[in-house]
User: What shape does this take?
Amino acid sequence: MNKKLIEILEEISEEKIVNSSPISDLSELDFWDSIFRVRLIVYIEDELDRSLTESEIESISDVVFLSKILS
Assistant: This one.
């Protein structure tokens, strides 16, 4: 995961992310749940200053997708 994504996830989750092994999907994280997913969507929409599309929301847990959209 890139540094910006890690910072965002730590801010939303209020937990430190330890990169012991690479992940490709955020659902692999212990704190991933439906509430965290919604909080992440809202955060990214605020960050991008636009609403995410349906297909973007469906991909919200994909690390590669998030890295691209946040760069």
